[in-house]
# Entry
Amino acid sequence: MKDTLTDANFPRTADHRVYHLGLRPGEVANRIVTVGSPSRAETIAKLLDESPQPFRLSSERGFLTITGRYKGVPMSIVSIGMGSPNMDFFVREVRECISGDMAVIRLGSCGALINVPVGSVVVPKASVAVSRNVDFNFSDPESCTDPAYRISKPVAADPDLHREVHRALEAARPAGSDTNIVTGTVNASADSFYSSQGRQTSFPDHNENLIEQLSASSKDLATLEMETFHLFHLAACWGRHTPAGKPTPAPLTTNPVSPTVHQSASSNQPISQVLAGSDTVIKAAAAQLVFASRTSQAFITPEQVAELEAWSAKGVLEALKNTPMENNRLHLEEGSV
Ligand code: R1P
Ligand code: URA
# Structure
């Protein structure tokens, strides 16, 4: 970003663009599909209405936002790259560009620990986090009694959105397709594609028993990927919180950028907390596309990916369309982006 940023606490440009995603209020909808790769974002974007023409913003930090309408309903697709830190940038910065409730579905790839073929779809009801214990002595494991990997407690998806994602994917699956859609499972989000997903590399990771340990931690544990836990965790934290030490919302002043977006009159209180108070929600759910079978060692082909992404994209957009929520006002509607 070339523009000058102000406020070290939550850096923003003079025209209210957030630091890493480059967005400003009015450029992102409150119904969002988030993905890891720009190509998957573009596949989903093909299903958006042609008019008004979707808005696209590619940030210097590699985040791509496409905002348009799906069957008339405002919708954004945001490609965030990989890992929890990127999910963290996405949720926090988008939250500051939106007023009211948010619904987010992650459409991502995963590895399956259960015995389903690659190309299956899994809709997890909850996620745990798997993290590498950096205090474990990886070069002298005998000296350490702590575990090398930690598995967190589960955090649930929003139950309504979860149900709707499953229903919409069942409806979107092509007629005659024998693709499995599995639900009611637990996902594990790892802090590495390799060590904390139990893959063997040339590093001394001490993860030979990790898959076994994961499967033993929950009978429903079915998938491994890298971002879903952090999305569910932030969404769950957001619900009905009171900003620390600030029980009374500051007075609002109208932001000239968009008539529906306001700025805090107090100095460093994030905008959305003021707007949202404690009664807005972030609904989060996920659909995982099985790219790797950790039981058979099979990996999906590019042809299978293309077919799977095309219909699952329709499923997640339908799920968001069917989620009752007040629409966020977009510049798109006003013809200015
Ligand atoms: C690793 O290959 C990446 O694929 C999965 C993991 O979570 C990780 O980001 O998701 P995406 O396909 O959404 O990127
Ligand atoms: N993404 C992951 O994080 N792991 C896999 O095994 C496949 C996709």
User: Anything to note?
Assistant: Residues 5-334 form a domain with the Rossmann fold fold (CATH 3.40.50.1580). Helices lie at 38-45, 84-95, 159-172, 210-217, 228-238, 271-276, 302-321, 331-334. Residues 35-37, 82, 108-109, 193, 225-227 surround 1-O-phosphono-alpha-D-ribofuranose (ligand 1) (CB under 6 Å).
